[in-house]
Amino acid sequence: MKHIGCKIVRDFPRPDPALVERFRNLPVANIDDCMERTAAVDPAIKPLNNAKLLGPAFTIKVPEGDNLMFHKAMDMATPGDVIVIDAGGDDKRAIFGALMINYCKVRGLAGVIVDGSIRDAEELSEMDFPVYARGITPNGPYKNGPGEINTPIAFGGKVVCPGDIIVGDRDGIVVIKPEDAELLAEKAEGVLAMENGILKKILEEGSYVRNWVDEKLESIHCEIV
Question: Which of 49, 67, 100, 180 reaches 20 to 30 Å from 189, CA-CA?
């Protein structure tokens, strides 16, 4: 019998690894600039350490404070996947801690992000494995279900589908649709090159040309006295 809200999809199409890899050294801020500066997930979801995040989304939806589906997903996800957990933004119970994250790392996964809480924060902060969360609490989770694996979810105010490309650094996280990825990579690479050129002039010449500032002030009829 079908039970609405309790579903596991075994697999899904993943983007070309070479396409994903193009985002490896691109700052999230540059990517977001190329997505009309509105693509980042809720900034309340923060990194626990300095490890950069990149990979296709393996999505999970769990009831608030319950991690049954995450336990199942850890055995299903493939190396390189980023586990993305919609925990409803709940901050009262941790969905995972250090034991589960060490298992994910050993299995070759590329990171775990949760719109919810974690525990064992000190240990996670010292790991070279990307973890992002909305909150921290010592309260552990229930393991009752239901939940969903590899269905579209809500995460930090964005819709995330299995196979979307997840990119994260200290600034935050963006979600990229695979069909937009090639064009977006080209644009973000161009922005990075431009900014590197500007920075070079700042450091070597002490100059930062921004003619648009005065043009904008004139267009809004700013009085300068």
Answer: 49
Provide the whole-model pTM. Answer: 0.95
The reply to whether 173 falls in a domain is yes
Note the pLDDT tens digit of each residue in 192-204.
Answer: 999 999 999 999 9
For residue 48, give its domain range: 6-185
| DSSP letters for the chain | ---TTEEE--------HHHHHTTTTS-HHHHHHTTTT--BPPTTSEESSS--EEEEEEEEE--TTB-HHHHHHHHH--TT-EEEEE-TT--SSEEE-HHHHHHHHHTT--EEEEEEEES-HHHHHTSSS-EEEEEE-SPPPB----EEESS-EEETTEEE-TT-EEEEETTEEEEE-HHHHHHHHHHHHHHHHHHHHHHHHHHHH-----HHHHHHHHHTT----
